[in-house]
Amino acid sequence: MLRRRDMSQKDFAALVGVTPAAVNAWVNGRSEPRYEKIEALASALGVTVADAISRRQPAADRSELEWLFQRAPEDGSRSGGNVAAYAFAANLDVLAREATQNSLDERLLDDRPVEVRFLLHELTGRRLQDFLSALRWDSLEGHVRQAANPGQKAGRVLVDGLNELKRTERLVLLRIDDYNASGLTGPDYEDGRFARVIRRTLDSDKAGGQGGSYGLGKAALWGASRFGLVLVNSTLSEPREGRAQGRMAGRLDLPWHRLDDLDFAGPAWFGEPDQDRANTARSWWSDAATAESLYLQRDDPAPGTSFLVVGAYDGSGSAESLEEMDAQLRKSVGSNFWASMVGGERTGPILRALVGARRDGRPVTVESEIDPHEYEPVRARAVQAFLDGRTVEALTSRDDVLQAPIPLKIPELKSGVQAGGGGHVSHEAVLLLTPTDEQDPKPDQLTYMRSSRMSVRNRRVGDLPLGHRRFQAVLLAGLATGRADPAAVAAEQFLRAAEPPEHNDWTNTEDLTATYVRGARQSLLNFKKAADQAIRDLLRGQEDDSDIDEGPQVLRDLLVLSAPRKARAQGYPTVQAVDGHVSDSGAWQLRVTVKLPERAESWVLAPVARFVVRSGSNIAVRWAGTLVPERDCELTREGNLRFRQGARRGVFRGVTDMTSHPVKALMSCVEVDVPRAEEQDR
Predict the structure, then answer these.
(1) Is the pTM of this model over 0.70?
(2) What gap in Å lies between CA 336 and CA 456, rounded to an integer?
(3) CB distance 622 to 599 below 8 Å
């Protein structure tokens, strides 16, 4: 602390009221201060008495934090950005998938799920200025502008980010919190979780049932920032320096650039200047006020980490508004991790995920938990039946789930050390198959998954029996089978090596070739073929006993005898309620409840917002972005709303486009109409 305060032992002795010799003895460990001196000692060093008594690292003052940039090497070599960030597409779908998988890999206690929260926050006005001040943007902006070279890919993203910030005077933050996770443990520089995430590139050190093996997943966080800027706040599962809560740091990934006649390699770190390392910032222990000013306050004392993506955006351009970004995050987590969120009677889910969005502190979308049965109702039913031990040997109803073993022969490791014993190891994976209904847009699919039950790949099964039942199937391998025997562990290692960086298949990778003896690729092919053949056999075995009265599907499609339609009372959808307010930016934010008449088909509506006028027709205004389905409806490709068949009410949300307003929203009344869309008759 004397070094951090740039204070001599003599000056410190004068402040505390002791001799310099006494201070020298304390510094060199020859003696300890008496208890009654501790308060004066703490005051002189600018730390709390509790910190002094416990000898823990004190929380840093905001004024001590700096951005320190890595100087360019003397050999003149340059980097155009972090190459790891280009291993994935820079979009929210990839970000949600990689971030959630990393959180699952760090699950701490097995008797409770990992909780992952995605919170979007758009800042404008005073809130934006306060955040930029806390971030020390004034010391960053010059570097960002110099690195914004439109001739490079990373530079073009920076140019667009700076222009967008200036044009809109708004900044989107995406905070990703996980709880019941390990946190960023370990030292600042030596081996550990903190150094692997904040300091290093392409360093994973994952094993067993964990998802990644390339150390690339974390790069998706920086890739989703317009500026390559991410801050962290971690609660540690293993205390360090006498503390566990509030370990914070920041990293900025820029290309090579020159500023004030100095060359910089690109990366920069935010933290306390390290007294023992030149031009180096180390992590710091934050107080609640600093965490709050950086929008990194954690709501729960449970271990885990909060990542703040500064200038969050969807690089694909498909999600621009907060509502669209919220919907994209929900879709990604729901479609990739539905099985992780399914729990049974004997075992709970391993993941709980929530998504929400705010604008200057006010909710835009309500933070809510993702329901796996909403995204994958049929396959979620299959996994739940497996977890509950309710699988069957023959289909007697549309909700039954068949189970079959699928052998996986694991080749020897080139190292000669193999989990489960020497030589080849055989693992028994689990295949689940269940019928699906006629409305399923993608029937006859097989989903691969292991360990944390993330969907590795969905693909259609071919060469199926004529007139087979439409189905969905799930292949659980390795630890996803619920077993943790040596063969299951060996299967995890094998399939993990067979996944490319995108984790979207089991195939012949360089890692597989380098790790296993010849024949590994053929083992994978045999495993996949065995799963496909088992599906054909199950369908063939059930074909004669299923739907005896109705006959095979191929004949039912040809022999359709429709009864005359019943006469019904004429009706049309109506707006039951409209709730809303005018946002700080001047747009109407509306939540609309629609009442739907009884009808055999789904209603497809094209909602319209109108400003009410005293005379003449009310004036229609445009929606800003797409509408956001909230209950019993979904968005079509045309941007209309399709309501669930049989639903009597539905709820959606929308924001009006200010550029289409005839007058200021605060001077208007607004109404919503719900006419039928043209695609209704298609």
Answers:
(1) yes
(2) 8
(3) no
The beta-strand segments (E) located in 188-331 are: 225-235, 247-252, 257-259, 262-273, 281-282, 284-285, 304-312
- φ/ψ (deg, to 5) at 670: -130, 145
- Positive or negative torsion for Cα 645, 651, 653, 654: positive
Average pLDDT over residues 227-254: 95
* pLDDT band at residue 467 using 50, 70 and 90 as cut-offs: confident
From the list 58, 65, 68, the residue with the least C-alpha distance to 134 is 65
Give the H/E segment covering residue 173. strand 170-179
C-alpha distance from residue 263 to each of 68, 234, 255, 266, 271 (Å): 13, 32, 11, 9, 21
Decide if 241 contacts 285 (C-beta within 8 A).
Answer: yes
DSSP letter assigned to residue 274 = P
**Joined tokens for residue 365:** 């979308």
Nearest-Å Rg of the Cα atoms of the chain is: 29
Beta bridge partners of 633: 643
Within a 13 Å sphere around the CA of 648, how many CA atoms are in the beta-carbon half? 1
User: Which backbone phi and psi does 185 adopt, to 5 degrees?
Assistant: -80, 170
Helix/strand/coil (H, E, C) string of 38-98? Answer: HHHHHHHHCCCHHHHHHCCCCCCCHHHCEEEEEECCCCCCCCCCCHHHHCCCCCHHHHHHH
Q: Which structure tokens are listed for 454?
A: 């993330």
Q: How far is CA 213 from the centre of its chain?
A: 18
Alpha-carbon gap, residue 295 to 416, rounded angstroms: 50
Count of alpha carbons within 13 Å of 161, Cβ hemisphere only? 29
pLDDT digits (tens, 9 = 90+) for 366-378: 999 999 999 999 9
Name the E strands within 330-374: 351-359, 362-369
3-state helix, strand, coil in the chain (%, to 5): 30, 25, 45
DSSP β-ladder status, 445-449 and 471-476: parallel
Cα distance between residue 304 and residue 627, in whole Å: 34
Measuring CA to CA, how many Å separate 326 from each of 81, 98, 501?
28, 17, 25
Tokens 């380098």 map to which residue?
514
- What is the side-by-side order of every strand in the sheet holding 425-435? 402-410, 425-435, 471-476, 445-449, 457-460
What mean pLDDT is predicted for residues 123-129? 97
Q: Is 257 exposed, middle or buried (0-12, 13-18, 19+ CB in 10 A)?
A: buried
Instruction: State the burial class of residue 187 (Cβ atoms within 10 Å of its Cβ: 0-12, 13-18, 19+).
Output: middle
Query: Which has more pLDDT, 91 or 280?
Result: 280
